[in-house]
Amino acid sequence: MLCAGRRDNAMRLTALDEVSERLGLKRGQGLAEARAMFPKIDVMDEDEEADQVLLEAIADWCDRYTPLVALDGREGLLLDITGCAHLFGGEEALLRDILKRLFHMGFDVKGAISSSPGLSWAACRFGRGGVIDDETMKEVLAPLPVNALRIDDAMIVSLHKLGLKRVGDLFPMPRAPLARRFGTQLLLRLDQALGANEEAISPRRPVAALSAERRLAEPIQAEEHILQLTGQIATSLRPGLEVRGIGGRVFELVLFRIDGRVFRIAAGASQPLRDPERISTLFSERLNAVHDDLDAGFGFELLRLNVLQHDTFGAAQGDFIGDGESEISLADFVDRVSARLGADCLQFAELRQSHMPERARVFVPAMTAGSAQKKGDEDLAFAPRSDRPLRLFHHPEPIDAFAATVPDGPPQRFRWRRIVHRVVRAEGPERISPEWWIDPKEAEERDYFRLESDAGRRFWIFREGHYDGKTAPSWRVHGIFA
């Protein structure tokens, strides 16, 4: 079985099985040439999107070994196992476990462990793999072709012309002539492979501030068992949160299914949490919301609870007659509803530094209300001091004003939404100038009035512009008082 895809405006072989390799076919070879050599070969079109999805699924599965998993192109993974190998019995046992599990899943893979990502990459693709000690790095790297240094094709061809075909051929060469002839990239890659130049691994997912997991001897399927274990894992997280003086704001429950599939379920809280029961309740609502998408299959063998975001935990003494449940009832309601229906289902008005009414507040998910309320009034230098209506329109609506006192008086009557309102009381004006650093030059000043009609309704209207004897200014209603 072969896979072919378009490369350089030509169909070329992109993947081979063992039989094809024994026949002498090579990756990058033209499809027409391969068919001329073996007319009966079976070729399939490559699916890059499906390959990427599969690689990311394997990367999720590798999270059981380390949270630092990075994608290496379209056909490899890099794992930073620093501080993790002892949990699996050492580096050799860890590598053996990874390769064995992936083999039983139907993948033929090769792995290597070393102190250098470049050397591990080279040993996997051009060597035998395995665990490589620091003392044997040169010995392992020397017989490999120069392709193993991750250099471009043009540099490989130039090295071959000089007879430098193995990495070991570069060791005795003076570095200065190599740098002048091939640039610094060749020496950089060589130093990275030998561990002389550190190479960072960029994980594909953010690393959790705190994490705890439970490995199971027997897989579980029932939702109540998942929630019970989630509460137990949250209990083991509590001491770490208390030592740091923080509480979790966003939690992630990672479920590793026995066949390798990984499910990630995130739940947020409006206030920092430590209580295992409340954390378990959050995931109870989330599991109810994603029930149809969560296929337990043959069960989950590993559960992990991550704290993705945290905040300072404000410890407070409870009252003398209860346990303080009344103080968290609103936060608990926000958490449960948001977990069930989504973070955007409840909105919170947050003040912003602007004296323009439509910019002075924005609606944000209620899940963020806890951090927003921590902002004191001193942080809002432009917070309005006068009364504002409870209901503010997103877009001020035009009105027809009658008998307005020139130049700065309010109207005696106005028509809004085809209804005429007679004004019996008025307050104002309150002049608000445009923000010159945001608004266009043609933006005009506004004079706001608080009006009360004969029917008892209260409006917040403004006049945009001034009387200049040529054109009358426009009037608009911006909000309604309760």
TrEMBL record:
UniProt entry tagged with the keyword DNA damage? yes
Domain of life (superkingdom): Bacteria
Domain UmuC: start-end pairs: 11-124
Give the keywords, sorted.
DNA damage
Xref: InterPro entries: DNA/RNA_pol_sf, SulA_CellDiv_inhibitor, UmuC
Indicate yes or no for the key word DNA damage: yes
User: Which Pfam family, just one, is annotated for this protein?
Assistant: IMS
Can you name this protein?
A: DNA polymerase Y family protein
